[in-house]
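Deliverable D5.2: sample structural annotation.
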Amino acid sequence: MFSMQTENPDNSSAGQEGSRPASNNYSGRTGLLPKEFQIYVGNLNWKVSNEDLKNFFGEFGDVKFAKVVMDRENPFRSRGFGFVGFANAEQAQNAVEKCDQEEFMGRKIMVNMAKPRVQRDDQEE
């Protein structure tokens, strides 16, 4: 188990485990961006890359990251879903409203606001 510390210019939560930076201080790591700024994208074509995802959602706002989740056993194979983070919640919500059930690279994608990861009993924290 490890704790993630973030840089915080005002040091108000410096050293607190799981603290998040201010919304304008995003450092490029998916776990540091508030969930309300992130969307889940499902039913992706197996050939979709992070760059494809970033380019597609770029018209809806300032994309801070785009990540296609890869299989653990075969890191070259997509699991068919990913996450996109935006500069603010309004851009994320706009992308959900405009893109859910739209076609992207030959597949009708599902787009929802991202939810916090649920800890399963068989996973270590």
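Annotation notes: Residues 1 and 122 are 15 Å apart (CA to CA). Confidence is low (pLDDT under 50) at residues 1-29.
The annotation will be released with the project's public dataset once the embargo ends.
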